[in-house]
Amino acid sequence: MRGGKLIVFSAPSGSGKTTIVRHLLEQEKLNLAFSVSATSREPRGEEKDGEDYYFISAAKFKKHIKDGDFLEWEEVYRDNFYGTLHSEVNRLWAHGKNVIFDIDVVGGLRIKKKYPEKTLAVFVEPPSVDELKIRLKKRKTESDEKINMRIAKASIEMATASQFDHIIVNDNLDKALEEAERLVAQHIDKEENESKAREEE
Ligand code: 5GP
């Protein structure tokens, strides 16, 4: 666990946070590893078990809740459960990694509350709810009903933005990527400098 930092990216779905998280994972100097969440939803498109999510049944998910296996979990959409397993974070920390999360706003804030010093919590804001609708429709991986469910949730999620350490408005992807990289590097350096200072005392 020693030295492990936590980086949370939360946002309404369709705001581009997954693209940002993928870009950050490619930056070797940041030493990041992706926290693979467990979910009871069906795989979409090219998603792979154990890479994008651990796809498990609702029954198995509920058993993990009962056994206290989750650091945080949410019924993000009705009957669709998502959660971060303690075992996942411990596994990545054991590899000396900084752990990055692509999770919903409630889960993100919960992690920040549990680990206030270690965690950088970033909210990615889409330029507008209309733009979000366009992006979700373009994705063409889900029914209109599911898309509407996501849009309804987006407005509620946007209201939590101020509780995060930083807000990135994703109206220009290149700028958003640059800002994300800078914030994460700063967070990692800050903690390293602080622990170095402590060691020198
Ligand atoms: P999607 O179905 O689009 O992959 O994800 C739906 C929402 O659930 C997204 O906002 C995603 O970030 C969030 N999510 C994914 N994994 C987790 C998790 O482990 N915990 C929580 N609270 N939300 C998650």
The ligands found in this model are: guanosine-5'-monophosphate
CATH superfamily: P-loop containing nucleotide triphosphate hydrolases
- Could you give the order of strands across the largest sheet? 2-7-1-8-9
Distance between the termini: 23 Å
CATH topology: Rossmann fold
Average predicted local confidence, pLDDT: 89
What would CATH call the architecture? 3-Layer(aba) Sandwich
Percent helix: 40-55%
Biggest sheet architecture? 5 strands, parallel
Name the structural class.
alpha/beta
Describe, in plain words, how this protein is organized in 3D:
The chain is of the alpha/beta class. It has a five-stranded parallel beta sheet with strand order 2-7-1-8-9, with helices on both faces. A four-stranded mixed beta sheet has the order 4-3-6-5. It has seven helices and nine strands. The chain is globular, with a radius of gyration of 17 Å. The chain has a single domain (6-200), classed as Rossmann fold, CATH 3.40.50. 45% of the residues lie in helices and 22% in strands. The protein binds guanosine-5'-monophosphate (5GP). Guanosine-5'-monophosphate binds at residues 13, 37, 41, 72, 74, 76, 82-84, 102-104, 106-107. Guanosine-5'-monophosphate (5GP) is lined by residues 13, 37, 41, 72, 74, 76, 82-84, 102-104, 106-107.
